[in-house]
């Protein structure tokens, strides 16, 4: 294996482990939320170590299965020299890359099994998942509080601004509506007489002195 191939393999393995860790944290976060919010139990880090271990071992088994499948594809491709008919229709020229993929998957699986046997690593995953769970809960609490704060009975300026809004409705919006209705009625009368009516008259907001609202 060349130096470039070693670097590429190391990067692929690191990415695989990162994805596995992210998937484990997500699974743990969801279990923590159910455990605390639904079941109402107190948080205990050690209680989630078996869940973390189970998730890592499951991902390791998936990586091993991927390695076994890729190895079968590698063996089948050794005696194929014709043109490929698709993405996964491997040929002799793909054998080298397939062998590298087998080793990468095997490496990921071994590392995941090592982490699953390391209680310190499991506790770190649980701690990260707990932080993610709390972040989600705190966002929901903040959103609920903002919605509650928008209630009229909790708005300190609601009563003061309510008077201004009602004046604006009475002095601006209602006259505008009445003028519009008069124009529509005038148009209908002219059409009934066979005449061409003028454009509908409107009252622009701002025609009333806004200082009256203060």
Task: Show the helix and strand layout.
Blueprint: H1 3-38, H2 49-77, H3 95-116, H4 119-149, H5 158-192
Helix pairs in contact: 1-2, 1-3, 1-4, 2-3
Report the span from N to C terminus: 81 Å
Mass-distribution shape: elongated
Helix vs. strand class: mainly alpha
| Helix-strand sequence | HHHHH
Helix content: over 70%
Q: Please describe the biggest sheet, giving its number of strands, its sense, and whether it closes into a barrel.
A: none
**Proportion of residues in extended strands:** under 5%
| Low-pLDDT residue intervals, each spanning 5 or more residues | 202-214
Structural summary, described in words:
The protein is an all-alpha fold and 214 residues long. Helices cover 71% and strands 0% of the residues. It has 5 helices and no strands. It has helices at residues 3-38, 49-77, 95-116, 119-149, 158-192. It is elongated and about 95 Å long. The protein starts with a helix and ends in a 22-residue tail after the last helix. 14% of the residues are buried. The model is unreliable at 202-214 (pLDDT under 50).
Question: What keywords describe this structure?
Answer:
5 helices; 0% strand; 214 residues
Quickly describe the structure.
By secondary structure, this protein is mainly α. Helices cover 71% and strands 0% of the residues. The chain contains five helices and no strands.
